Every structure is written in structure tokens, then in C-alpha cells.
Predict the structure.
Amino acid sequence: MNVIEDIHPQSPMVATIGFFDGVHLGHRFLINQVKAAAAQTGWQSSIITFPVHPRQVIQSEFQPQLLSSPEEKIELLAATGIDNCILLPFTRELSMLTAREFMQLLYIRYNVRMLVIGYDHRFGHNRTETFEDYCRYGKELGIHIMQATAYTQEQDKVSSSAIRRALQTGDIRTATKFLGYPYFLEGTVVDGYKVGRKIGFPTANLQVDFPNKLIPSVGVYAVWVSVGGKQWKGMLNIGHRPTLNNGTNLSIEVHILDFEGDIYRQKMRIEFIDFLRPETKFSSVDELIEQMKKDKEATIRVLD
């Protein structure tokens, strides 16, 4: 996949536009339609997306919770087999363009000859124009407009918003079903409270690399842990460690099963497989240890 970050003369393109957060099954269904149209015309297939969430440009205080970092999104898009990913910087000037002006920019700058529009997608200043308007502008500019078929899964609308809601309520199975892959966090192993090793459950504390990455609901999860080029079973706790009175800081710590070694400052990836239970304040550390033993058994059952 070619990543295009500037004006770059190309052969004619079949393109679609979107933020593509998470590159979920709905996105991939749309991308497959772009690829099919490109195969029919002999043109290049392209994704036009934005490195930064548009609302962050328009509302500087907006802090999105995203399913993928810019780097992760490019990696996920590359796996779809699309020819090009155009990273179009979103600016205030760009946000003021009408739909027709935006389409003209795509035609002149990137040689877009066919635009595949998501079934509910709107663009242009204030996003007031309709699909019929896009078709009319397309005829004037020399861009063929094609409306994509909607993707649903068992009558459920698959969207980035639906996936975020699922993750925020611990519904990992729905998130995985809509994404088409396990949701993951990537980051660096950092210093923690070092209490886990004293109670027989040493943990690695993850500091997530991308500050706007969505952190799933507080609770205990069965996860796969990738570190040092190998994959391990793990039980992950996201929360405030109420039994140990560690204050209000949110921690992301994973006990890696059957693992020994120093991984401090190493890169780590955690893939969420299932939600085991909410975070609970226990009456004693012994009660916490007994629950963690049960969590370990549940983790093994889920991952085996």
C-alpha cells in the first residue's frame, strides 16, 4: 500500500473518504466495494483519510477516544489490500470547503475519477448536501459517484461508535465481532506498585503509547500478551486497585501466566478476549488472592 501525504500525480483513482477508526468490518466491506470498482475500471483503489480527528481541529478542547492510533490505522488499512492511503491533513480551511469544492480538490490533486460514498456519509461544510447533490457535482467535474451498500451483522449496525460503546461496557465479544479482530492496546512496560509479586501474582504495568486510545471498562479480562516476540496468556486488571487503597489513578496491569523475566521498558501488546468480572473492593488481601486464583482458572478456560 502506498501512503500518500502530499500532492502526488497518480493514475486515475477510485476512492472513498472517511476517518476509518478501528478499520472494522463495516469499513472493510466498503473498502472491498472500492477495490471491486477499481478492478472493473483498471484504476487505482484508494482510501482518503485524516491523520487527526477532524473535531480536534474544529474544537481544540475535544479529546477523542479512538479505536486505533494513526500508525495502527495505516497498518490495518494496509492489510485490506487497498492500493493507496491518502493522508489528507484536516485544516480549518478544508472544513470550510463546500462538497463541490472538496470534490474538485480530490479531482485536481489526486486524480479521483470515481468516488464511492458510504451509505450514511456526508461531507462538505455543514454537511447539508445530499447524495443527489454529489451526483450532480460529479457530472460537472468528471467524477463518477457510486453509493456503497450498507453493512449490517445480524441486523446490528456495525460502526466505530457501537464498538466504543461495547468496550466501555465490557462487552468484549461484541467489540471483537464488529471489529473482525480482538481489540488491542500497545505500549511500554513501566514501574508499578510492585504489590503483585508479594501476593504471588506479579504484574506488568502498561503505559499506552497513544494518549487518545480508548481504554475499555474497568474490570478483569482474559487477554493475550505479546512481548519479546512471543505470546502468552494473561489476566488483565484495569482499575483503581480499591482493595489496596492506591488512590484514583487508573492502572492497566497484567499478570502473565507461566512467565518469568524482566520486561521493564519493553514494548507490549495486549489483545482483549473476554471480560471476566467488574473490579471489586475485597475485605482483605487474602480474599483478593482467592479471587485472583479463580480469575486465573477462568482465564485458562477462556484461552485454552
